[in-house]
Amino acid sequence: MATLDLNSLEEMPEVDSDTASVRTETALAPSTLYNQSGIEADMNASDVRIPRINLLQKSSELAEEDGWNPGDIAFAKEVKLVPFGSAAKVSFLHLRRQYQQHLEWGSQEKPLVYDTREEVFANGGSLQYNAANEYRPIAHLTMLIEQPADADESDEAYFPLAFDGKQYSLAMWTVGSSAYTSVAKELMTAASIFLKDGIHKVAWELTVEKKKSGTNTFMVPKVKQAGKHSPEFVEFLEALLPR
Question: Considering the entire predicted model, what is its pTM?
Answer without folding.
Answer: 0.81
